Amino acid sequence: MADSNARLREEDRLPKFDTRMANATAAAQASAQPPVQGVTDSEIRFGMAAPFSGPAREMGHQLKLGIDLAFAQANEEGGVHGRQLKLYTADDAYEPTRTLNAMKELYEQHKVFGFVENYGSPTALISVPYALERHTLYFGAFTGAPSLRHDPPDRYVFNYRAGYAEEADALVHYLVKSRKLRPQEIGVLTQQDAYGDAGWDGVSKAMRGLRGGGAGDVFRMSYNRNTVNVDDAIAQLRRQKHAIKAVVLVATFRAAAKFIEKTRDVYPDMIYATISGVGSTGLASELTVLGPKYADGIICTQVTPAVESYASVTLNYKKALAKYFPGEPADYTSLEAYLTANILIEGLKRVGPAVDTEALVNVLESMQNYELGLGPKVSFGPSDHQALHKVWGTQLDKSGQYHAIDLD
Hints:
Elements: H1 2-12, H2 19-31, E1 43-50, H3 57-76, E2 84-91, H4 96-109, E3 114-116, H5 121-133, E4 137-139, E5 157-158, H6 164-178, E6 186-191, H7 194-210, E7 219-223, H8 231-239, E8 246-250, H9 253-263, E9 271-274, H10 280-290, H11 292-295, E10 299-302, H12 312-324, H13 332-351, H14 357-365, E11 392-396, E12 402-405
Parallel strand pairs: 1-2, 1-3, 3-4, 4-5, 6-7, 6-8, 8-9, 9-10
Antiparallel strand pairs: 10-11, 11-12
InterPro entries: Leu-bd, Leu_Ile_Val-bd, Peripla_BP_I
Family: Belongs to the leucine-binding protein family.
Protein name: Putative branched-chain amino acid ABC transporter
């Protein structure tokens, strides 16, 4: 009996094991999340690789402006679940040879969570694989290239805008159906890179549809990226035996303006039609400086409502622009970036506080009929990572102002 008592007293001296504490510890360990790159208790960091030097630098400025505008609005309202949104940028000058270093700067030095509104089709051939290899979000790039629109879509790549093929198709059908041109009377000026190829493919596909499956001969001219040297293209146009009555310009705004400047007097009745990748505000500015006859009648497809429209989202954008960046004019490129960022912000809100890439992708893929004030509603799905397929039409007047036109 004495031995038994001794054992009890010895056990009394051992540290007590509290099952409630054990359960609490296990629960804490289970709920503990590994750190997510670019996400802290106070902020979420995003990166953008775009041109902030070189001929396309104005596009980089406008894209950054649109993202900064949306982020500023969200941050003033308390951020997303208490986290402020922050944008880091890296300059690749719209040169694919510089894009990899820009991506590394953002991901490895600034430790961004994901990429938003990267610029360009040729640069995307470098930046998209980099993001995919790291299972990192690549959201709303400023390009309509097919390399970002695989079927089925790449899991981490989401687009806001209609593809260049959709814009080119809308233009070709407008020129044939509304302007009564024959397909062989339509030529194409393309930039010599993935951007130009994407637009060319869209025009060719539209031609095949109009010709019952055969594209026939489509007259194509080209020029080098980051230049305005369109002289060889114009020489090709002059040698063309069949009359060309319209040119679809798959170009950036300075090259497009130079082509129009050098051909307007020779072909006074030529119809010039551009897709949104041109940078429509920059194009309007360049042509307005040249004079009223250069701007008048130029057609441009858009992936947003007209900046001058009274769509609620456009009015909200201009109100925010006046508040956060007074003096900055409304612009189609910054409007697109603003819309892109707002869709991303909505996705982040729906994820909740425990944000990570996989959770965000799952939430985005479940986003259906989100009302942004655009007219068409925003939807994604596991087999469709493009928010909108709508193409709007605009046309310049002599004063350099765009007005909505019906493409149908």
